[in-house]
Specification:
The chain is built from 10 helices and 16 strands.
Amino acid sequence: MTSPMYPPKPRPGDRVAVVSPSAGLPALFPHVYELGLRRLREEFGLEPVEYPTTRVLGADPRDRARDLTAAFADPTITAVLATVGGDDLITVTPHLDDAVLRANPKPYFGCSDNINVLNHLYRLGVVAYHGGSVLVHLGRPGRPHPLTFDSLRAALFTSGWYDLRPAPEWGDQPGDWRDPASLAVEPEMFPGEGWRWQGPSTMVEGRTWGGNLEILHWLMATDRVPSAGELAGSVLMVETSEELPSATEVFRILRNMGERGLLAGFPAVLVGRAKAWDFDRPHTPDERRDWADAQREAVTRVLAAYNPDAVVVFDVDFGHTDPQLILPYGGTARINAATQHISVRY
């Protein structure tokens, strides 16, 4: 494995690429997209640059790969932000020009299906960033979430250590993008209860890897994940999407990682807060609590079998819930179970 390399950071006033390597949802929800672009300009002082497929639904994977490669190749572009996730980015990464990506490393921000790109960059030795969707996070209804924007600002512009903080409030019920009026209404939030810690009271420092659990399963099926040896000593981060995989499915995916020899090598595991609501499954608050409890039990059970000595932190806000903390992907994280602190190096 190539030694990890942190790309140079942008500065306010720079041009940054805004791309849709997964789904071209700006074509369907331009009001959400334009809000995200406006905040990118006003809150961060960055000038977004669109590419031909940014607002195109169903663009050919080769065209999306061409745009992503072009964003890295352009010397006037200093960072690359994905608009949103999707479900077929796995067909795009084989068409990327790895020589261009290696020669022109830039901070890449994305989550959900963008794990395909984050993992691809990881295997090229380039540190990327989990989080920062233009539609979901920059285009959040009502107002930006302070924790999301604070960590995104730090990840964009700074290179030092950043202390993650438990969210004082959280939510997992987004507004309906089909209704432009929904952008005026802040999402429903619930009181935060802090992180939940399991395992030994020790400190772990290592490179981060992982992301959305469903996408990781696809990557394992296509044999595109690093080897157990390459990942040994890393910090695993896992979270689940709006497809709401059951606790049984979560257990089985992690069990497959264990059988592949991956789980035993992670001295620490960060588990994102379980998303437990979607439009076709509008769970009540009590049902959401039960859902999250079942997810935590599934993770605990599989780690007891494959890595009982791991430090495990549940309910870290880095997945498909709100707020979303930005985590370096392939960068360094420090998990101190004795003091119950998590720091990342941007």
